[in-house]
Amino acid sequence: MGAIEMSALGVAMRQSYWLYPAVEVVHLAGIALLFGSIAVLDLRLLGLGRAIPVRRLAWHVLPLSAASFALIIPSGLMLFVAHAGDLIGNPVFALKVCLILAAVTNAAVFHAAVFRGAAGWDVDAMPPAAARACAALSLLLWVSVIACGRLLAYT
Q: What is the tens place of the pLDDT at every residue in 68-77?
């Protein structure tokens, strides 16, 4: 991990007065965009706002969720490079990575299986139990990812 931290990017991230905080702001903005867009759809899947068509809502928010990764991934990697040695040995970081993988897997299962039947419960109907379970798990996982991210500052 020393080579990663000693790379030009790692050194710049640690030594520049503005680079690390600027990258952190971009990362946090990406997280806000990701969680906000996901939460809107998940709350609809949990039964709130049943008059709003699920498929139309997904059509509006999913591009925002995808776009947020364009902010989160590079900024997260830049933050990692600055302190790779500390993060690799931190169990909170390992948990955060596992939670992200679980959240992405949950989303993939939802879109590959459950969402395919959305035409039957698109408007004015309670989504099926599988959709509600995926939505509840999604909210729990993403809130946990955010909590782990904040805990990294203290561990």
A: 999 999 999 9
Closest among 55, 100, 53 to 76, alpha carbons compared: 100
Whether the Cβ atoms of residue 101 and residue 31 lie closer than 8 Å to each other: no
**pTM for the model:** 0.93
Q: What's the per-residue H, E or C state across the chain?
A: CHHHHCCHHHHHHHHCCCHHHHHHHHHHHHHHHHHHHHHHHHHHHCCCCCCCCHHHHHHHHHHHHHHHHHHHHHHHHHHHHHCHHHHHCCHHHHHHHHHHHHHHHHHHHHHHCHHHHHHHHCCCCCCCHHHHHHHHHHHHHHHHHHHHHHHHHHC
Residue 1 pLDDT greater than 80, yes or no: no
Residue with tokens 């948990």: 95
Helices 19-45 and 54-82 cross at an angle (nearest 10°) of 150
> What integer pLDDT is reported at residue 95 of this predicted model?
98
